[in-house]
Specification:
single chain; mainly alpha
């Protein structure tokens, strides 16, 4: 089933912003940032879409990161690093419908 337009645009942007793929060390802070803007279901859908084109170890790392975000606070420095990377690529870090 295809992703809704908002989630599809997020995945497209992430792939453009991380052309070599999201580094594993960025999974947890990335999904923590997404979780601050999206529902848990939306975050999982994005994670699964990213996992589809990843190698098996990355697929599991993505799933583990999403699970970790729901059970623990990520490191503030890591979140700041990923937030900076996303902002540098033009990501608004707010939902479009929150104007």
């Amino acid at each position: 089933m295809p992703l809704p337009p908002l989630l599809s645009s997020i995945v497209t942007w992430l792939r453009a912003g991380y052309p070599e793929g999201v580094p594993q060390r960025d999974y947890v802070p990335l999904f923590a940032l997404l979780a601050s803007q999206l529902t848990d279901v939306e975050v999982k859908e994005i994670g699964e879409e990213l996992a589809v084109s990843s190698d098996p170890s990355s697929q599991q790392a993505i799933r583990d990161a999403i699970e970790m975000v729901t059970h623990a606070e990520p490191n503030d420095a890591d979140v700041a690093r990923v937030r900076s990377h996303l902002a540098a690529g033009g990501w608004p870090l707010a939902r479009p419908d929150q104007g």
